[in-house]
Amino acid sequence: MKIAVIGAGAIGSLVAGYLKSKAAEVHLVGHADAVDAVKKDGLRISGVRGELTVPLDITERLSFSPEVVILATKTQDLEAALQENLTYIKDAVVVTTQNGIRADTLAARYVPEGNIVSSIVMFGATLLEPGKITHNFEGSWIIGRMYGLPDASVLSLSQGLGSIFPVILADEIKGMKCLKIFVNANNCIPAILGKSMQESFADIQTSQLGIAIWREGLAVMNNAGVRLISLPDFPLERLTKLVAMPPQEAAKIFSGIMTGLSKEPLYGSILQSIKRGKASEIDYINGEFVSLARQNNLSAPLNTKLVEMVHQVEGKKKFFSKDELLSSARALYN
Q1: Disulfide: which of 9, 17, 32, 55 matches 43 by Cβ 3.0-4.6 Å?
Q2: In contact, 221 and 292? CB cutoff 8 Å
Q3: Shortest CA distance to 231 belongs to which of 309, 295, 174?
Q4: Of 329, 331, 330, 323, residue with least CA distance to 308
Q5: Are 189 and 251 in contact (CB under 8 A)?
């Protein structure tokens, strides 16, 4: 099976490196800085599985037709990646890995719906610099169809991907993707502060803000009639119980969860993009709560404000202090 991974960020590089280490025929597509780094020194992975350097074929564009294409760009970069490589991927099995719920719809503008396999990544990684990745924590890889039930091609794909991560087949992956938004929704806070997840959520007040993000997002999704389905590593009950607790009590539990995610500093996908001078995926995470609220005549003032603050950081290249964050947000959830 010839596999192409498009997107040489944290997840794409990690997946490509691990697949190559298992003798898969894999090719990575990335920007020039990643191409130069990997060609020079190989792909360097550290973290929970130890140190690994993998020699890897990498280019800025595809020049052959793979059987499987794993799309590992951010959602905002997905259409450009599809357009640039469409000649070679239009007949392939295309796997989306993006956060949020829009990637499959975007991909379906370019490739047949029947070729698209939707997935949810539950493992975590950080891009330290081009060609250098930290694998922060383990997790499963959930795959399924947004437009139907898993079929023989999905099963075959699961066997290939199962060599590097535990793969779970999902009959109703859309509800799982909606719940995954909550897993990522607190990435906005490290992005606003310019700090790691561990630093950001060691503070109880900041953790209370994290719970408030969830509370508002859950209210929006419930009132909009969205059906959430438990993830293997994040049951729906965890979310509903925490948002129902007294805020101080919930914040202490939340702080413990977030600070214990990884021994290495964990920055979250939004801050990683900002650090690289790129637009983040905030509009596809917290922005999804805002969009859903707008579509259903609901309100999401806290998430609206946090999306705005992330965009301010992107534009001004200046982070907010904790006091500035809390003073801006507190009136919207207390």
Answers
A1: 17
A2: yes
A3: 174
A4: 329
A5: no
Residue 306's contacts (CB-CB under 8 Å, 6 or more residues apart) are: 188, 189, 192, 213, 286, 329
Residue from 105, 35, 99, 110 nearest 73 by CA? 99
Length of the chain measured in residues = 334
* DSSP-assigned states of every residue in 198-248: HHHHTSHHHHHHHHHHHHHHHHHHHHTTPPP--BTTB-HHHHHHHHHS-HH
Element (H, E) at 70: strand 68-71
Question: Quick check: 282 and 75 in contact, CB under 8 A?
Answer: no
d(CA 298, CA 223): 8
> Which residue positions in the chain have pLDDT lower than 70?
334
Give the model confidence (pLDDT) of 135-179 as tens digits: 999 999 999 998 788 888 899 999 999 999 999 999 999 999 999
- What are the CB-based long-range contacts (under 8 Å, 24+) for 152-156? 153/93, 153/117, 154/117
- Gap between the terminal Cα atoms of the chain: 54
Q: What is the CATH number of domain 2-171?
A: 3.40.50.720
Q: What order of strands is seen across the sheet that includes strand 57-59? A: 57-59, 25-29, 2-6, 68-71, 93-96, 116-121, 141-144, 167-170
Please give the C-alpha separations between residue 66 and each of 28, 91, 140, 252, 294, in angstroms, as whole numbers. 11, 9, 24, 48, 40
Q: Which amino acid is at 37?
A: A
The DSSP symbol for 174 reads H
Helix (H, G, I), strand (E, B) or coil at 308: helix
CATH 1.10.1040.10 assigned to domain 177-332? The reply is: yes
Q: 210: left (phi > 0), else alpha (psi -120 to 50), else beta?
A: alpha
Domain range list for the chain: 2-171, 177-332
Q: What is the pLDDT of residue 274?
A: 95
